[in-house]
Amino acid sequence: MTTFAIVDLETTGNAKEDRIIEIGIVITKETGSVIKEFSSLIYPDRGIPPFITSLTGIEEEDVLDAPFFSEIIDEVYHLIKDSYIVAHNIEFDLGFLNGEFKRCGYEPLHNPVIDTVELARILIPTSPTFKLGQLADLLGMGHDRPHRALSDAQVTRDLLIYLLKRMSRLPERTLFHLLKVEEKLKSELRPFITKIRDDKRYSLEKEEGYTLIHGIPVKKSSHPQAENSSQLHPFSKWVDEAYEDKEGMKKVMKQYESRTGQRDMTELVYESLEKSKHALIEAGAGTGKSIAYLLASLYYAVQNGQRVLVTTHTTSLQQQLLEEEIPSLEHLFKRPIRTVLYKGRSHYISLIHFSYELEQSRQDNYDIALTKAIILVWLTETATGDVDEIQLPSNGRQFWHKVSAEQSTKTVDLDLGEDSFYHWAQEKASHADLLITNHALFCMDLVSEEPRLPSYDRAIIDEAHHLEPVASRYFGIRMNYKELQRQLSQFSDMFKKSTYRQWVFRESFYKEAKKCQATVDEAKEELNQLSKYIFQSIKRENKGNRKKSDVGRIQYGMKMGESSGFQSTAREMSHRFTALLFKLITGMDHMREQLRLAASMAEDHSLPILITRLDRQIELCHQIRKQLTDYFDSDSEELVKWIEIEGEGANNSIYLFSEPLNIADILREELFHKKESVVLTSSTLSTEGSFSYMKELLGIDQEDLMESIIPSPYSYDRQVQVMVPNDFPDIKRNPEEYIDAISEAIYSIAEVTKGRMLVLFTSYDMLRKTYSLLKEIIDPEEFMIFAQGVSSGSRDRLKKNFQSFEQSILLGTSSFWEGVDIPGEDLSCLVMVRLPFQPPDQPVQSKRDAQMKESGRNSFMERSLPQAIIRFKQGFGRLIRSSTDRGVVFICDQRLMEARYGKYFLNSIPEVPVSYRSTRELINQMEQWL
């Protein structure tokens, strides 16, 4: 029977020169019984950084009397030398161990290994995290002392036994396919997979719950049945019961609190759906707006047998609707509610393409092998086939493009029929009461020639303040060098001789493939030259006077009708690139015809797969050509075009953008004039009690439009204080002094609030400079500082890191002004560095301003100010997320109190106490209040 040595180390850091400070080892049998445990602190002969102390609790005095590693090496070596070595991130632990063995003159160990991170990724593919502590919580495993070696080793042992049990429950055919990729993995799993597979092969037990599709076990899934319309009480009576009755909301929702505004909103939404009217509804924080509109739209859908579409900006809100709110509300109806989260083709796996790729596993690298293993296990669990359920490794996304349903084309659609997740999603959607989607797909559907969404007449747009920026993005062009190079690199698979090894083609076919590969190489080089030229020209032109985007990229606005030397050279170079794409299309057309001829003469499922892939590549080339031609050759006054470059990045990382100057006309024609009822809702749609800005922005001009502002139920006057310092330097005259003052204020406030601060910037450049200064003046033992774009990780990762440390400060720009929920005591102070005006020199903003000026309008009052007020309200909303939250909003911008327009900002938020004094006085006041 196999013996496992489960090892965990704590070290002074991740670098080569770092050393071990603690070791924990658990020796266990395959059955799970523990044979021996060993642990020891180790003297590292160097200091322990504060970050490691705060993580592990191990201080320098703890290891002063601990042995050197050389004093315990003999015991450690003999304890583990004959076992499978297991660790949660094997490369880290075994790397450090072998480093110490080598240092002490011992041979490094080459035992078989298991990495429980890798094994968990494969066997729990839908886990949101693979960190040991979080996995332990997720699986209900006790973990008394995280980041202590023996405790971590004990939990890793529990995890290993759990994972091996999970593996034993996999279908025999899944195990058969896993063996195709196992040799490329870090973990040596073949003996375990083979034994489980053989036991299953000779067992008399039937494997139930799976369907074999293209030779792959897939979870059996029930197909939707159309339900008859359920007759409910008339709406007025039904809504009374839902809100007032003991069997209503009080029963179905935990800790339900009655809110007047919520019921008002339900009635408004229902009226707009029932009477085919459009509506704008602003619902203050804490109204419970998603429950309000769900009750109305579900009632309408069930009673009338007509589906309603709900679109949101964030996936977190979609998950909240699907997993928490709709299942609770279902009990108020007399039948199950059919809800479908609908996404584009690229989200769904194509089983026939995946089956083909499994047969091509000989050449896989590590990431592809791991991706295939994850997908194989996931297919035994998923009901949707939607890639967002799993986390793929870094290159796994590239592999996904090969096996997603977007590979099926109009000419050869391999994914129609009973064995396709995309087909099942469409089928479910056709029977749905409620369709949930995102703003991106919603906007693509509005302008796409072929429909991207099932038909609908009534829509609820939540987070509606995002509709305009998302629509602008999808009604325009977004291209970047890296993505184009990635797409071209992926083409090469279709031109390799090895792709066609199982068939016999004429030599002319291989010559054509070779010519296509040469054209791809030429196109990649031409694209590289174009990107380099654009990059260097913009960097040269913007020296010293750099317009920057909110993520710190240098911007260059393309001028319509102007034929500068730069623009005409860039246009010429793009023509050379698009000419090569046309040559490539012609070559791929010839290859496709020969493949079609071969497919008509032989029954072989692989040939149609290759034809669809060539079809997809031809389609993509046409798309890229059209977009680049539109970008460089079109001189439409209705478009704004600009280029961004990474100032510090590779000298060809360029991004091309274009957006329509006015999306109101498009939305008016494609949305508001075509749909029966569109309800737009958000906590920030109005400015100064009026929707006029939003109506003009989105093209809503209906006379019978319903409008309502529902105030928040929170007691803001008791929960919030707004503080504005009156002694900050003038940012225009002394930008460096201003950053010094911000940094000092942040530090002083942090001492009062014990960290727990979110600092919002409008400029990435200022964020970066403030972060550098704070790192100099703040002791890392005192406060952890996280900064968007500086600290690694996504917005959600930064937020989690911020919440996991007791005393921390989070600096954010752009996306942090909204959609970040940090409830309770994790956040006590929100700092706004400046009022959130869009920089006037941003390409779209400056063109719109100029256009308004020409027509005699005041662009500041009509556009810049309302836009900034809505963003200000979003930022303000980050602080109070429940009725028990308390905190301070500290605004370092004297314009709020001194400029004529400052009152518009204050009038747009609930009435709260406002103090305008010196920084020191405000900090004293804050200390007393908190």
TrEMBL record:
InterPro entries: ATP-dep_Helicase_C, DEAD/DEAH_box_helicase_dom, DinG, DinG/Rad3-like, DnaQ, Helic_SF1/SF2_ATP-bd_DinG/Rad3, Helicase_ATP-bd, P-loop_NTPase. The keyword Coiled coil applies. Gene3D superfamilies: P-loop containing nucleotide triphosphate hydrolases, Ribonuclease H-like superfamily/Ribonuclease H. Keywords: ATP-binding, Coiled coil, Exonuclease, Helicase, Hydrolase, Nuclease, Nucleotide-binding. Residues 248-524, 270-467 form the Helicase ATP-binding domain. A motif (DEAH box) lies at residues 462-465. Residues 506-533 form a coiled coil. GO terms for molecular function: 3'-5' exonuclease activity; 5'-3' DNA helicase activity; ATP binding; ATP hydrolysis activity; DNA binding; DNA-directed DNA polymerase activity. ATP binds at residues 283-290. Its cofactor is [4Fe-4S] cluster. CDD domains: DEDDh. GO terms for biological process: DNA replication. It catalyses: ATP + H2O = ADP + phosphate + H(+). Pfam families: DEAD (PF00270), Helicase_C_2 (PF13307), RNase_T (PF00929). Its EC number is 3.1.-.-. SUPFAM superfamilies: P-loop containing nucleoside triphosphate hydrolases, Ribonuclease H-like. Belongs to the helicase family. DinG subfamily. Type 2 sub-subfamily. 3'-5' exonuclease. This is 3'-5' exonuclease DinG. It comes from Halobacillus halophilus (strain ATCC 35676 / DSM 2266 / JCM 20832 / KCTC 3685 / LMG 17431 / NBRC 102448 / NCIMB 2269).
